[in-house]
Amino acid sequence: MPKRLLLGIIVVLLITNVATLLFWNKQQGKIILNNENTEVDVKEPVATIDGETISYDSWMSTLRETHGKEQLKRMIDTKIVKQLAAEHEIEVSEKVIKRELALLTGMQGPMTPKEVKQKEKEWREDIIYRYQLGALLTMDTTISEEEMKSYYDNYKNQYDFSASMKVSHIIVKNTKTAEKVKKELDNGASFSLLAKEYSIDEDTKKDGGYLGYFQTNSQFLPMGYFETAKEMDAGTYSEPFKSNTGVAIIYLHRLLPDINFTYKEIKPYLKRELALDQLDQSLTTEPLWNKLDIKWVYEESKK
Question: Are residues 129 and 215 in the same domain?
């Protein structure tokens, strides 16, 4: 697999955003803490330990001192890449974004629809940022057509995504028990809790029946699972059916389709990968800071 094909997920801390919200809501004495819209009264302690309190101002001061510069730099980096990418008309194809989202989804455990929506929003922003940054860093690097075509011929399968499914299951010994479980599901019971109670699969019952992600042609996928799942909608459970391990009921978290690229489609991104390797260049905005007039509270970088 190409070295730079391995993906890392950037953890985005929202400390600077919190500080901004504090400024906006100071007169009301309230801030919004997180995506759940939790309100915090800035006049009240944010924590109490056996009667000893930590004030909101003390908390914010510590956050600014320990993370303020780092978070502000990340925000500036994002603005730099957006502005320069727009200037040079650098875009990322939706097909490439979907492929990256599929790969990242496969690394996660079970998620609620709300969690999926939030995660994919964060991932999408990061994917676009990384690809645009890579393109900006390698704009002036030349890679021959022959080298790109040879690399594609050797590694083209690594750029494709094979259809995959994320499933949980409940395995029981007989149809009678399976029908009982199905009835409880129909009455609104939790699939995860029922798996812990009824499933005879000791490897997955403690995790609520979660099996994980499988390519749809995987030899490790139990008999009948893909045939059943392909007729289901995400977020639904199946009727009981016989499998090679017992009577199964599966829950389909996600079913992700094949994503395949032609040489023409992947060529711009393949060029970026080869150019970064040739330059031995990491994905950093440092070479781009002198291309814009940047002023910030920690130091200044002028064009």
Answer: no
